[in-house]
Structure formats: structure tokens, C-alpha cells
Amino acid sequence: MVRDWDADLLVIPGDFDYLDDPPAFLHQNIDILGKHFPILAAPGNHDILKWFHPEDGYRSLLLKQAKRSGLWRHCSGDYGINSFCLIHNIIIVSSGVGTLGTGHAQYIDDTLTRYMQTDHSR
Fold first, then answer.
1. What is the pLDDT of residue 104?
2. What pTM value is reported for the model?
3. How far from 20 is each of 11, 16, 32, 82, CA to CA, in Å?
4. I need a labelling partner for 35 at 20 to 30 A (CA). Which of 9, 56, 60, 94 fits?
5. 38: nearest Cα among 98, 82, 94
């Protein structure tokens, strides 16, 4: 559907697969959407085991994909855990609430408050 509807971005709210196989998960998406398609994701409870693996964990591979696609230049923070993206005047806040990380409510509040206090007329 993402390809057929000509979407600009894929947002995945966790539970990528049930095999704990980050490379297979990412390649499945790349094979369909292309090597430079932007993907933004947050970890679900089934992704915790392989989220932080340094070379081929979900976070590492998805962050590389976000950088390769150019998406990450519109974002800041800790990918998937506490991150903020502003894309075409749409705010996307990713959170690991309930799975990984801490301070999610405060991060979201602080981030949106900062955004609302910034002059966006430029």
C-alpha cells in the first residue's frame, strides 16, 4: 500500500517482526520501497531484544536508512526513543514509551512547547 499509494514516508509504531531479524525486516521494506525510502519507527515490545544491537539492530539499521533517505536532516533526538521530526509542517514525535527509554512525557511536552514558542514564519 505504501508504494501503491505513492506515500512519502513510512511510519511504523513498533512490532516490526516476530523473528528478531532486523536485517531481514529492513531488506523486506527496501526491496519493495527502494533503498532511499524514508522510514521512521519506534520500538514495540517485540523489538526490544534487537533494538540496540550496535551493527545490525533495529535502531542502527533504521537510523542508517533515515540518514540515507535524507529524512534524518529533518529530525533530532534519540531515534525511535525520544525523537522529533518536522516534515512539510507535520510534527512527528517518536517515543519508546512502554518499551524503551525514560522521560517520554517530559520529552514530548518540552519538544512541543519549544516548537510552539518558535517563530515559524520564516
1. 95
2. 0.90
3. 19, 9, 20, 22
4. 94
5. 94
